[in-house]
Each structure stands twice: as C-alpha cells, then as structure tokens.
C-alpha cells in the first residue's frame, strides 16, 4: 500500500466529520488514566488543533463537555497533562470564548486557594497562558475588568512556599507591565516591593521572572525604580553573572534597556568599572556553543551542502529613491534591528548571552563614547593577544562592538590594531577568522580614510582570500564584511576591479546555497559602489555568464530569485549600455513575474500571503534598474510590453511596498522614455496625489520623487495636476520631524512645480518658502528685513526656481554626492545599504540665456542674500 505524505493529516481531517470525535479526544486526555501520558497529551494537542481550526463548528454539547472536563482535570497528578489541559483552556479562551465562558476566570482564581498543590499549580499554569494570550481582553470593559481582582490575587502568591507557584505568579503579573494596565499601576509599589523580596530566590525561574519584570519596569515606571537604582544595578550585575544562563540573559537585557533611558549616563557612570568586565566575560563562547559550532575542530566544510531549513526566509526591501545634498548618507529608514550586526551564530540560539552582552556593550559605547575606553582598554590589551583562542576571539568581538560609539578614542590605536586584525584573518581557528571579518568591517570607514596602500589594500587582499576560505562560516563573514568595505570604499576599488571580480566569480563554483545569496549581495554592492566603472567588456565577460546561468537555472517560484534580481538590478544600473545584450530576456521575465503575481492576487485575494508579492516587488525594482541603466535604450522594450498597464495596477496595490516600487519605476520610466508614460499621466497623477502620506515614508518619498520627474517632462502641461499634489507637498515640508530624504525630495519637487507652473504655485509661496529655503541651507532674512511675502510676484517665483535650478545643476555636475535613486536592501545579516553615487540634476539642463536679469537678481539678493552669495 502506498500512502500519500499527508495521509495522517487527511485521516485526522476525516475524523473531524464525526460529531463525537472531539469528545473521544477529551476523554482520552482526562479520563483514560490507563494510557501512557504522552498518548493522553497527544490526544489533547490534537483537540487543541481542532479547536483552533473548527471550534465554531463544534456542537454546543461537545464544547460544553470539553470545557467542563478541562476545569475538572486542571489538577491532574501529571505535570504534562496539567500543562496540556492549560493549553487547551487558553486556546478555547482565545477563540473569543472568554465572554461565553463566564465561570472560567472565577473558577481558576478559586482553585488557586486549593490546598492541593497539583490543583493550584494547574490553575496557575492555565491563568499564565490566558494572561499571555488574552492580555488585551482581560484589561477591557468587555469582561468587567477581571484584572481588578486577579492582580491583587496574584500578588498574594509571590511568597508561596512552592517556587513553581511563585514563578507563575510573577509571570502572570509581568504580562501587564508594558501595557501599563491600571489594575497593576494601582498596586505598583506593592509589586516592586514583592519583587525585591524575591531577588535572591533559590529558584532560577523565579530569578529570571524578577529580572524580566525589572527590565520592563525600567521602560514604563522609571520613576518608581529610580530611588532604588543603585541597589538594582548592583543586583543586575550579580544576576548577569548568574550560573543559570537563562537568568543571566534576562538580566543582561537590563543594560540594553537602561541604555535607552535618559538617566542612563547619570545612574550608570559609577558602575562602569564593574559592568564592563561582566559584559566582556559574557561575550566568550560557552562550552556548549563551541561544541555546537565545532569550534575545536578545524572544519573544511565548503563541500557539504547546506541544510535548507537553516537558511532563513529572505524578504526583499523595496527600492527607495532619494535625492540627497550636503553629502549626507542617511537613508529614509534605518534598519531597526541593529543587533543583527553582532555577527550571526546561526547554528546556536538566535539570541544568547554572548550576543546580548555584545549588543549591550555596543549601545553603552554609544552612550558613554570614549569614557568607556578607560575600563575597557586594559581588558582589550589582555584579550586581543591572549594565547587561548576563545578569549582572543571574545576580545575581537569586543573591539567590534565598541567601534561605532568609541571610534574617536580608538583612532589613536587603530594603526597598530588594524594590521593585527588583518593577521588574525589567517588564524587557524575558523571562529576567529569569521569574527575578525566582522570587526574589521566595523572599522572600514576609518580604513578607507587612510592612504590606500597602508590599510585598504592589505585588508582587501586578505578579505578576498577569506571569501574563498574552505569554511562556510568564514566565507559568509568575509563576503558580508567585503560588502561593507565596498560601501565605504566606492570608487577607491576601481584599480582592483579585475582582482575583485576574479575572486567573486570564482566563489560561484565554491559556495553552497546559503552563501550564494550573500555573494549576490556583495556583487550588487560592488556595482552600486563603482557604478559605470564596471562597464568594460573584460569585466562584463567575467561577471555576466555566472549571473545569467543562475538566472536561467532558477524557476519563477524560487525564493532565491529575490537576491539575484536585487543583484541584477544594481548590475544593470552600473553597466548601462553594457547590459544591452542581456536586457530583453531579463526585462520580459520581470514583466511576466509582475503579471503572474497580479493574476494570482486577483484570483486568490484572501489567500495570497503578503511575502509572495516579493516576486512582484523585486521584479519592479529590477525594471527600475534597467530603466536607470539603459536610459532611452529601454524604449523599444516598453513599447512592446504592457508594463504601464501592470504598473497602474501595482500603484493601487494594498501592500505599501508594491506601491513604493511602482512609483520608483514610474519615475525611472519617466526619465528614460516619457513618450510612453505621457498618455497615462491623467490616470497616474490622482494616484500619486493620494499616496503623499508621510505616515508611509518610503511610499510618500517615491511618489514625491516621481511627481518631480513628471513635472520636468510635462512642463507647462503639468498645470491641471498641480492642485492634486501641491497642498500635500506643502504640508509635508512644514511637518516637524520629516525624515531628511523625504524633505529633500519634497523641496525639489515643489521647486520643479514652481519652475514649470509658477502661476499655480505662487499663491502658496508664503506657506512653503521658509522651510524650502531653510532646507537648502539658505539663511532667510526677509522677515528681519521687513519684506512681506505677498509682494512676491509670479515672475519672481519663476526666476527664483530657475536660480535654484542653476545652482543645483552646478552642484550636480561638480560634486560627488549620494544617489538620486538609492536602494535600501537587507543583507544577511541585515545592514543598511548607503551607497554614495553622483547626484543627478534636480532640474533640466538650464538655458543659461534665461539667467535672471540684473534687477531680478537684485530683488532675489534682497529676499535671500545668503542663497545668492553661494549660488552666483
């Protein structure tokens, strides 16, 4: 007999058609004591899954019987069965049954007073799960606020004789700290007093929950902790060194949270000398870590295929366009998961004491800056040159963790440390080589600021060797570090392109699945960094064959398309006309991906999961890269496709990332082949106007940028559409705390609208002129000079915009500045992509015959003297 892989699931689903099946399951769980406990528990877990999937279809008699049996058996003598019953209870409760099961909470609270330990523990276990899963409902009028009774009840059990009960009690209350539940806030002093009483409890689980509570209270009730802060810090120093690593990890979170508080520097400065060695000690690999990572075995594992389940799901970050001035590299949105920079031990726990200690040291370095060096430098001197590899490795991690916060103070030591680290890249231990890659990447900015032959060339040479290391972990670390170096070095790498490409291309033949994804990113970052310097026949011949081979190998449904398409987008932009031989099949496949995804979305609107739209997003971004790189050479491809129709649908998608990438593509196609975009402008402009919502920063940014590009192409024909967008743009430029890139694009787009449609923009001049000028670092003195804005004429506005046009065009041609279209992607591990490029012109090439005549220049000189001092 041949069974299908999902036969068991199918059989269970068939059994659900029998009304009494769930009665049998609860019977096995609660009554069939003759069965072994794992079987009884499994029956309960099957019932739990049925409740999640089909509870609304249970007959009333069945659901009532299950509820009754749960409450009667919450005190089963078996801890496993009690836990299973508790899981079943909270699953039923989370299906909206708290309202329909009014006796549940009173009954469980009553059972807490039972003299039978099993009953008390079982009831508390169930209550803890309910508090975790239904905290919001419990704190609502819907249930007549049961927490007013429950929280004082829980506090009574903080002094219970059983450590398990004490732990349950703290865990229940902890669920309501962050939400500042009123019932808890009324008893906050008693809660804190009870926590202090349990600080030295002999049970690790109790100590862990005490630490967790104090960490959360640090965020929400610092006022109550502040009088006791000295003692709390001393306590957390002890717990961070707890023999139980779970307790130590929970305590270590305290330092991360404290670093975010305004009082951190004041309350912690006198404890730095004690805290620093504790954190440094926590950054060593534990014995278990070393075993799991095979740290004591020099493993050449490059030929061993990756375990597919170890490769994390990868989601594409949509393309964001930016027009940046002042040489600033700030993107729209910082990667909010900075801790992922603290190197990636993917075969051990994602978050452990080592990583938490390193993250804490990192954030504290940003708080204390060079003051942290006083306690840490003596430790570093000992660690970095220690004969034991585990200790040396931790020292290298420490050096990387303090890089951002203590950079100024470290500069004096880097001429000695960087060569030492470069030597460590050849260490016999793979874990030392891999962490050294990461730490060197943290100092890449300083390396690039020095003469190339001194540090950059030796570092680049050794990193490229490590990219071809025989250990997969080292390959990964080296590839990620080299991508960071590429971002910092940019065109400094041009003399070494042949050597770099030779190494990266050779890595295609060495890398297993996971590291291939990182290799794509390193290649894409290289293309972003060196730009058109990559457009040479010998480089193209080296780079494109392996990329196109992978492109042809992958199916449309393969998630590996994400990083490959991202890579090709950067490569296409850099190669410009050099990408022409490859553009047609790439373009057509991208269009097909968009079309296929839209079709699936429309046919399965409720079932189609958001991550699946990444296929469409990444295809739109590659089309943008093609348009930017090929310029008007893309015109025939656009003419032969339905991309504008598809783009119209994408611009109205519910998913912000889809709209974000659609607007980026619209702007790039506007620049490359406006003759095909122009017939659709009447349809596109209302959509752009409705997406000028600064709450969705990246969507708003790209829509703003696209409007500016369209304005320049449309000229005076833009007049019917100005009213659709100008009010929103003026609101954005006046909005406090607007992200810099959005502010830049908004200011430029308003200027472009004023340039092509001064009659329509002039009436709103008073509402935007001040922030507009301030943004461009113009010192606005008109108020102090007594000049009232209404006297400004349409002619003056037009010439003012033209003057700005001339100024920015000169800046664009003379200055190297960050990109006019910048992609923000996630690398593995995550990192912000900030690639400096040459700025595009903010306005069309000016007709110098239109430079304002002298009288107008003088009027402008009165209006904005500093602007004209720097512009003419």
Automatic annotation (TrEMBL):
Main location per UniProt?
Answer: cytoplasm
Question: Sorted alphabetically, which keywords does the UniProt record give?
Answer: Cytoplasm, Nucleus, Protein transport, Repeat, Transport
Sorted alphabetically, the Gene Ontology cellular component annotations on this record are: cytoplasm; nuclear lumen
The domain of life for this entry's organism is Eukaryota
Cellular location(s):
Cytoplasm; Nucleus
For the Importin N-terminal domain, which residue ranges apply?
9-76
Under the GO molecular function aspect, what terms does this record hold?
small GTPase binding
**Could you confirm whether the keyword Nucleus appears in this record?**
yes
- Presence of the UniProt keyword Transport in the record: yes
Q: InterPro entries recorded for this chain?
A: ARM-like (IPR011989), ARM-type_fold (IPR016024), IMB1_TNPO1-like_TPR (IPR058584), Importin-beta_N (IPR001494), Importin_beta (IPR040122), TPR_IPO4/5 (IPR057672)
- What is one Pfam family matched by this protein? IBN_N
Q: Name one GO biological process term.
A: protein import into nucleus
Question: PANTHER family given for it?
Answer: IMPORTIN BETA
Into which family does the record put it? Belongs to the importin beta family. Importin beta-2 subfamily.
List the protein's name: Transportin-1
Query: What's the source species' lineage?
Result: Eukaryota, Metazoa, Chordata, Craniata, Vertebrata
């Amino acid at each position: 007999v041949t069974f299908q892989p999902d036969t068991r699931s199918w059989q269970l689903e068939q059994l659900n058609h029998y009304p009494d099946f769930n009665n049998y399951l609860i019977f096995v769980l609660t009554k069939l004591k003759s069965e072994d406990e794992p079987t009884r528990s499994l029956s309960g877990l099957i019932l739990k899954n049925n409740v999640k999937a089909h509870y609304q279809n249970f007959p009333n008699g069945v659901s009532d019987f299950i509820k009754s049996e749960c409450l009667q058996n919450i005190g089963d003598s078996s801890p496993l069965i009690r836990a299973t019953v508790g899981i079943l209870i909270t699953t039923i409760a989370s299906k909206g049954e708290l309202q329909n099961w009014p006796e549940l909470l009173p009954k469980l609270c009553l059972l807490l007073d039972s003299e039978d330990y099993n009953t008390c523990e079982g009831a508390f276990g169930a209550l803890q799960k309910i508090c975790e899963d239904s905290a919001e409902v419990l704190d609502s009028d819907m249930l007549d606020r049961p927490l007013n009774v429950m929280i004082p009840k829980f506090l009574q059990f903080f002094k219970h004789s059983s450590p398990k009960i004490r732990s349950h009690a703290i865990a229940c209350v902890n669920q309501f700290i962050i939400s500042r539940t009123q019932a808890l806030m009324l008893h906050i002093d008693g809660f804190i007093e009870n926590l202090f009483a349990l600080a030295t409890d002999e049970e690790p689980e109790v100590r862990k929950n005490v630490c967790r509570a104090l960490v959360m209270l640090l965020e929400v009730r610092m006022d109550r902790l502040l009088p006791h802060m000295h003692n709390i810090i001393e306590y957390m120093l002890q717990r961070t060194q707890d023999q139980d690593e779970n307790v130590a990890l929970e305590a270590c979170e305290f330092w991360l949270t404290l670093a975010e508080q305004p009082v951190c520097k004041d309350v912690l400065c006198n404890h730095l000398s004690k805290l620093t060695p504790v954190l440094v000690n926590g950054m060593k690999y534990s014995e278990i870590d070393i075993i799991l990572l095979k740290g004591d075995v020099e493993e050449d594992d490059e030929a061993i295929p990756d375990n597919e389940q170890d490769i994390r799901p990868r989601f594409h970050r949509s393309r964001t366009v930016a027009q940046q001035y002042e040489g600033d590299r700030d993107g729209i949105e910082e990667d909010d998961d900075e801790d992922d920079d603290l190197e990636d031990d993917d075969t051990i726990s994602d978050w452990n004491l080592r990583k938490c200690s390193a993250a804490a040291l990192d954030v504290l370095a940003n708080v204390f800056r060079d003051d942290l060096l006083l306690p840490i430098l003596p430790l570093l001197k000992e660690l970095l040159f220690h004969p034991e590899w585990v200790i040396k490795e931790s020292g290298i991690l420490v050096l990387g963790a303090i890089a951002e916060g203590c950079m100024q103070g470290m500069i004096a030591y880097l001429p000695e440390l960087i060569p030492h680290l470069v030597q460590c890249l050849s260490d016999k231990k793979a874990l030392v080589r891999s962490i050294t890659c990461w730490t060197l990447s943290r100092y890449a900015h300083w390396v690039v600021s020095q003469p190339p032959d001194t540090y950059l060339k030796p570092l680049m040479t050794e990193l490229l060797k490590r990219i071809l290391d025989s250990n997969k972990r080292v390959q990964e670390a080296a590839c990620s570090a080299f991508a960071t170096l590429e971002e910092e070095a940019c065109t400094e790498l041009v003399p070494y392109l042949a050597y770099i490409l030779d190494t990266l291309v050779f890595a295609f033949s060495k890398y297993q699945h996971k590291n291939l994804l990182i290799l794509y990113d390193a290649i894409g970052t290289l293309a972003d960094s060196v730009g058109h310097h990559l457009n040479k026949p010998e480089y193209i011949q080296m780079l494109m064959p392996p990329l196109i081979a992978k492109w042809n190998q992958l199916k449309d449904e393969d998630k590996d398309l994400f990083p490959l398409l991202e890579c090709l987008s950067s490569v296409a932009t850099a190669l410009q006309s050099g990408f022409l031989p490859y553009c047609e099949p790439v373009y057509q496949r991208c269009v097909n991906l968009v079309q296929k995804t839209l079709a699936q979305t429309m046919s399965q609107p409720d079932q189609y999961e958001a991550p699946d739209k990444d296929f469409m997003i990444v295809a739109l971004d590659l089309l943008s890269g093609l348009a930017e790189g090929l310029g008007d050479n893309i015109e025939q491809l656009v003419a032969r496709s339905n991309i504008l129709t598809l783009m119209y649908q994408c611009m109205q998608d519910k998913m912000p990332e889809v709209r974000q990438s659609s607007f980026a593509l619209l702007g790039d196609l506007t620049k490359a082949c406006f003759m095909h975009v122009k017939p659709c402008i009447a349809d596109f402009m209302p959509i752009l106007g409705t997406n000028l919502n600064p709450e969705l920063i990246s969507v708003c940014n790209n829509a703003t940028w696209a409007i500016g590009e369209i304005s320049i192409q449309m000229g005076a024909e833009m007049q019917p559409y100005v009213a659709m967008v100008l009010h929103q743009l003026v609101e954005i430029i006046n909005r406090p705390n607007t992200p810099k890139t959005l502010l830049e694009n908004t200011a430029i787009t308003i200027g472009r609208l004023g340039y092509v449609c001064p009659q329509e923009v002039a009436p709103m001049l008073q509402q935007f002129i001040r922030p507009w000028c301030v943004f461009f670092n113009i010192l606005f003195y008109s108020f102090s000079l007594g000049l009232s804005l209404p006297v400004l004429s349409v002619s003056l506005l037009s010439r003012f915009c033209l003057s700005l046009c001339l100024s920015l065009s000169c800046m664009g041609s003379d200055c190297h500045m960050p990109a006019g279209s910048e992609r923000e992607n996630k690398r593995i591990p995550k990192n912000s992509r900030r690639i400096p490029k040459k700025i595009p012109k903010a306005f069309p090439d000016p007709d110098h015959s239109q430079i304002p005549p002298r009288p107008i220049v003088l009027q402008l000189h009165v209006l904005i003297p500093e602007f004209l001092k720097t512009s003419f």
